[in-house]
Amino acid sequence: MDKSKRLFLKSKRSFCRRLPPIQSGDRIDYRNMSLISRFISEQGKILSRRVNRLTLKQQRLITIAIKQARILSSLPFLNNEKQFERSESTTRTTALRTRNK
């Protein structure tokens, strides 16, 4: 077989299927914080379907549950702890610099 023809052949990789992130027994509910927290980023954003590997129906239910938990203040809307620490430390250093001049 020619090398030029080999380039177009698909590789024979075995695809390893991951277990779905939501088991059949898990209830998607705003009170199930251990389940909901897996689908939120460190900043408090809802992760996309592609990242979560969820079906469309599961993603919709997760989104609704997260929004309900936020409204009932079980979850924060934003997680600004790291950003607050950074801004606080930068203001301290600029304050020290201006004081030393």
UniProtKB/TrEMBL annotation:
Molecular function terms from GO: small ribosomal subunit rRNA binding; structural constituent of ribosome
Classification via InterPro entries: Ribosomal_bS18, Ribosomal_bS18_CS, Ribosomal_bS18_sf
Organism superkingdom: Eukaryota
Predominant localisation class: plastid
UniProt keyword annotations, A-Z: Ribonucleoprotein, Ribosomal protein, RNA-binding, rRNA-binding
Keyword rRNA-binding: yes
Gene Ontology CC annotations of this record: mitochondrial small ribosomal subunit; plastid
UniProt-annotated location(s): Plastid
Entry-linked PROSITE patterns: RIBOSOMAL_S18 (PS00057)
Transmembrane segments: none
GO biological process: translation
Similarity annotation: Belongs to the bacterial ribosomal protein bS18 family.
PANTHER family the UniProt entry points to: 30S RIBOSOMAL PROTEIN S18, SMALL RIBOSOMAL SUBUNIT PROTEIN BS18M
Protein's name in the database: Small ribosomal subunit protein bS18c
Source species of the chain: Gossypium tomentosum (Hawaiian cotton)
